[in-house]
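Figure-free illustration: sequence to structure, shown twice.
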Amino acid sequence: MARCLIGCGSNQGNPRGHLADALELLRAMPGVTVVTASRLRATRPIGGPTGQDPFVNGAILIDTDLPPADMLDMLTAIENTLHRDRSDRWGPRTIDLDLLLYDDAVIEQADLTVPHPRMATRRFVLEPCVEIAPDLVHPVAGRSLRSLLANISQPHPHIAVVGVPGSGAPEVAATVADAILARVIHAPAVVPSPKRADFARHWEAALRECAAALQADAWPDDSHGTVTDFWLGTFLAAADGQLPAAEARRTYDRFARTTMPPGVVLLLIAEPATLDERLAFRRRTPAPQTDMFADLVGTATAVADAPPAATADTVAMLITMQDRLRRRLLGAGPVPDDRRRPVVAIRADDLGQAMGDAVAAVEAMA
């Protein structure tokens, strides 16, 4: 039998009645044993259309012998029975049932992602889950649900917006900071290109400069938080294949041990075509005219007069770096101590939507 957590919510009609009906339908399903259910909580809607009614949210702990795909089908069938409308993303609904955890499984499929990709930063999800299953472990973050709730309850949260040049990290970080009245720290130095001469020297110098901006002994304690558009772990990803692993780790630890690590990482993921388009934009737009995608200025200048193959190589280099970041932050397997934090992956091809998704992710922590 697998132990599973299900998140539930409703904000249409009779929300508490809909949630009670969903629980009874769940109890009646073959192969499912309801262990316990949390109390219900009223929460404000996050993201989606404006003017929605408040949600009522809860969590249900079950044991089941159904495989994950069948669990998803069963939850969808219950939603359909209770007339769930799926026309609006994050819109009002009579019922919402999410498979949050399925034992320690990590699943990434077109129609199913487990653990639920945003549960680790959503207070309205974590609070009812911690009420009924505080010691269950999130298999990607490598932390208990109790620990994840404490993580988003820090007095001065540190949120890192992470992405390769051209993903929009500076723009998204500034938008998030404005939305929550936080201070923003932009990267004081860039991770050097692996093609750069004397990579090791430039790598260490940039790491030192970025670490200096994150010193724990100077960290404020007000409630608004800090948003950065960089993460020191990016330097380890950049060092892969460029520096001896043990040497890179020793240097990294020397600078990182006195810094304030992020509590939450928002990882921006862009398609190659998007990075190519933004690189072309920076090549043809003089820097004084706009600061959009300013982190690409040096890269664009380097390939401005180069043949098309050089541009393709640059985009390929950025995608390789993005894949390394994704594996380091979201990869399955043992979770190293420097990666024990919740990560929200955000598609960055539509910058406006990425900004909205990032703001919603952070507002859901409150």
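We now fold a second protein in the same way, so the two outputs can be compared directly.
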Amino acid sequence: MRQFKWQTETTCPKDVTFAWFEHRGSFRRLMPPWEVAEEIKADNTLEVGSQRVFRFPMGPIKMTWVAEHTSYDPPHHFTDKMVKGPFRYWCHNHTLTEANGVTTVTDEVTYQVPFRSLGHLIAGRSIRKRLARMFHARELRLRRDLKRHMEFSDFSRKRILIAGSSGLIGTQLSAFLDTGGHDVWKLVRRDPLFENKEIFWNPNQGEINSSDIEGFDVIIHLGGEGIGDKRWSQKRKQAILDSRVNSTILLAKTMSRIDKKPDLFIIANAIGWYGDRKDEILDESSENGEGFLPEICKKWEESSKHVEGTGIRKIHLRTGIVLDATGGALAKMLLPAKLGIGGPIGRGKQWMSWISMDDQIYAINHLLMMSNTEGVYNLVSPNPIQQKFFARTLGNVLRRPAFIPTPPLAIRVLYGQMGVSLTTESQRVLPKRLIESGYNFEHDDLKIALQDSLGKWKL
């Protein structure tokens, strides 16, 4: 048997820290941000017999990990053991102690790899390195999440409904809000599971039961066909527009008719609103740009007009490039960057306005919890960067060269108009109103944000 130990300190009280672990969302928040893992099952308790099941890629196959909790002593201790997975044996003890205002979470893992001594000889070092990376990521997430929740510890918890909860941002936002003690429900387009707090809707058919969405404090709409998932045919462009506009109109009209209206309606959007603006510095007061994406973004914001005059506050989120290794723009950049061919696109002078996934989630939480937030907010780092320097920084983090240029013509041949728009248009956007609202960024340095997203620290 081998042993691995990791300690995390936080200024959050022990009972509050333990309660964070007890929420179902903690499972997702503790998953390393570079791991492409699918949650299959997560019981809403840490009590003995409860299970958490997830599936993750291991080479060309998908491996299932089943963990069962075998001891439970709140707020001091809990244990889970691997029932099924890649190890011969795995037992993870979590112990919480508190002294002088500091809570220490001690993770102790006892494990045995397949083929015993031979397995450790072949893979032992790489396993310990992977465990160190994983637990360092867990430490960062735990400390940051607790800190952000404590900022609003005196505020009442909210009942929140999210459309688009299974997307890249929605998955993390749902988990984070759940660990904060909020009552989080999800709008889904399949048969809903009431025990998972799901509500059915079908925006393509205009179907939603108005009584189902009564009594929520906040409704968040993150849904819509992926902008960069496929080439832009006319049919695809129409689907991108319709998926955003029709669903928002349905929600807005339904909210305007119900008796118990939400206090706040948050609608996702993108900095595509501003269009290709070269070196111009843009903030929330800047005018709408020209082209397909600015048109989509403008119509999306206008589609929420049906809640105006109803007493419901509206927030429009204009989000930049969200750094997440498992999806979105960064995931598409990783393979060429790892191969050493992720250099500048064209001359690389186009501006990239980025934001870390954690800042994306924390900023939404900040705007959601504040009572005086309303209107448009740019969700981007205060430090946009030109694409050639972004590529250079990513290469530095991955320890790969990043000087081989990619001609825009190659992008057009491979991805069509979609690829050219998303990689060569320039948007130098600042989060002016978000900063004015009092939000403090977790990541304002691109290199640190990429290291956290990819687990590329020097430990």
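Summary for the second example: DSSP finds twelve helices and 21 strands in the chain.
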